[in-house]
């Protein structure tokens, strides 16, 4: 077997999400038509690879999460961003970038769409050797292009659940227990702080070992 085109195109997360949703809608429509026509629903399973629907469902659920930029993007957002960075001169052939030209590779442009970075730190994780390849003004310009064309996610990926700070009700034993003062606590800590059983006592008249030369 000979591969004609190893990679015909790069797909963004938004395009993958839309493609999977379309496939899911087609499968549901086909299943509905089979049910209405009285056909055996099991025949439809023979046309679908095993576990395909499970993979589709899990991928759609993952890409649809609120912190994913693709969950709030549309085709117009991506088209506007691509056109803007092209007009600014950042769309350069990858071979020219390897030779030192200022620009963004195809993979870097794709990652900018997928992650929509909002800070210089995030940009450094996407664009290799960003500080050496671009000036501070160009870095800020790229961030402005992103913020002006690509919507920001509605949620944060690092959002942690709120801790429960409520206190449990005090038990009856705790209510009847007498209060303990700080002096009593310190006294209990100092008591038997160095118990004798933790030390090896020397016998009477024992002396430290001395060198044979003395």
UniProtKB/TrEMBL annotation:
UniProt keyword annotations, A-Z: DNA-directed RNA polymerase, Nucleus, Transcription
Stated name of the protein: DNA-directed RNA polymerase III subunit RPC9
One GO cellular component term: RNA polymerase III complex
Lineage: Eukaryota, Fungi, Dikarya, Basidiomycota, Ustilaginomycotina
Annotated spans, Disordered: 27-50, 188-214
Source organism of the structure: Malassezia caprae
Localization per Swiss-Prot or TrEMBL: Nucleus
Main subcellular location of this protein, as a coarse class: nucleus
Biased composition, class Basic and acidic residues, residue ranges: 27-38
Keyword Phosphoprotein: no
PANTHER family the record matches: CALCITONIN GENE-RELATED PEPTIDE-RECEPTOR COMPONENT PROTEIN (PTHR15561), DNA-DIRECTED RNA POLYMERASE III SUBUNIT RPC9 (PTHR15561:SF0)
């Amino acid at each position: 077997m000979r591969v004609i085109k190893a990679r015909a195109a790069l797909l963004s997360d938004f395009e993958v999400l839309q493609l999977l949703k379309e496939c899911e809608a087609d499968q549901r429509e086909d299943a509905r038509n089979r049910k209405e026509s009285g056909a055996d629903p099991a025949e439809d399973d023979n046309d679908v690879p095993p576990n395909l629907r499970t993979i589709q469902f899990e991928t759609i659920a993952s890409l649809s999460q609120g912190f994913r930029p693709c969950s709030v993007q549309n085709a117009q957002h991506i088209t506007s961003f691509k056109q803007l960075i092209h007009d600014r001169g950042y769309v350069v052939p990858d071979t020219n970038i390897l030779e030192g030209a200022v620009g963004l590779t195809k993979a870097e442009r794709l990652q900018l769409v997928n992650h929509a970075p909002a800070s210089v730190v995030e940009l450094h994780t996407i664009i290799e050797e960003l500080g050496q390849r671009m000036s501070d003004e160009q870095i800020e310009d790229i961030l402005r292009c992103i913020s002006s064309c690509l919507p920001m996610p509605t949620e944060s990926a690092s959002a942690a659940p709120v801790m429960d700070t409520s206190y449990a009700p005090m038990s009856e034993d705790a209510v009847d227990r007498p209060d303990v003062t700080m002096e009593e606590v310190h006294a209990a800590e100092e008591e038997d702080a160095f118990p004798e059983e933790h030390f090896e006592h020397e016998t009477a008249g024992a002396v430290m070992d001395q060198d044979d030369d003395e």
